[in-house]
Write a structure and sequence with these properties.
- This protein is α/β, with parallel strands linked by helices.
- The chain has one domain: Rossmann fold (3-Layer(aba) Sandwich), CATH 3.40.50.
- Helices cover 37% and strands 11% of the residues.
- It has a five-stranded parallel β-sheet, with helices on both faces.
- Helix 2 links the parallel strand 2 and strand 3.
- Pfam families: QueC.
- Its EC number is 6.3.4.20.
- InterPro entries: QueC (IPR018317), Rossmann-like_a/b/a_fold (IPR014729).
């Protein structure tokens, strides 16, 4: 097993599956982490397990959270409808503080297993306008990570990497396909059913479908 260790946030969607394949290709021993946070699209958790198994991670960990207890998002409060048309401003599918919480827990695991790299599949081009997907957020969290941890204080810096940050969805799909990612295992839909079938109408479905089309590749997504 490689001496280089990395923790990869794995949602079970297209982007995080691509990141996982990229990190493996760089020669890291990969530890993947998913979150059961009260999301309405819990089928993504089964997708994450499939991807982790297919790509041969060292360990896959699922952490339980109660972000639905906070609410404030269409992904954690079923009383809020998932929009099917793009609107202005930050959409209601934004989950308050989600990436901050996820990265904080991944940071803790990285310290425990002595990994120096955290990877997250956020994107600043083909995305829905979430504030915690911006490069400024990633840079700020890396600074926090090195101020707040024993590893950082003792001179073992931690790095937060977002390799998809400036890639289009088509570029991401092409990259992952070249690395052997089986996108048929993944679930991106915000309101996928229990079997992981996509609605085909939400913003996430739209971006995914357009990505495959622009890349000239067949879309393996299963729709309701």
């Amino acid at each position: 097993m490689s001496d280089k260790k990395a923790v990869v946030l794995l949602s079970g969607g297209l982007d995080s599956a691509t990141v996982l394949a990229m990190v493996k290709a760089e020669g890291y021993a990969v530890y993947s982490m998913s979150f059961d946070y009260g999301q309405r699209h819990r089928a993504e958790l089964m997708a994450a397990e499939r991807v982790a198994r297919q790509q041969g991670v060292v360990e896959h960990k699922v952490i339980g959270l109660n972000l639905d207890g906070i609410g404030g998002s269409a992904l954690t409060d079923t009383r809020i409808a998932v929009p099917e048309l793009a609107g202005e401003g930050i959409p209601v599918t934004y989950v308050p503080a989600r990436n901050t919480v996820f990265l904080a827990l991944a940071l803790g695991w990285a310290e425990v297993i002595e990994a120096s790299e955290l990877f997250i599949g956020v994107n600043a081009i083909d995305y829905s306008g979430y504030p915690d997907c911006r490069p400024e957020f990633i840079d700020a969290f890396e600074k926090l990570a090195n101020l707040a941890t024993k590893a950082g204080v003792e001179g073992r810096p931690l790095h937060v990497r977002a390799p998809l940050q400036y890639m289009t969805k088509a570029e991401i799909v092409s990259k992952g396909t070249g690395l052997g990612v089986d996108y048929g295992l993944t679930v991106s839909c915000y309101q996928a059913d229990a079997d992981g079938r996509a609605c085909g109408r939400c913003d996430s479905c739209r971006l995914r479908r357009e990505g495959f089309f622009a890349a000239g590749l067949s879309d393996p997504t299963r729709y309701v």
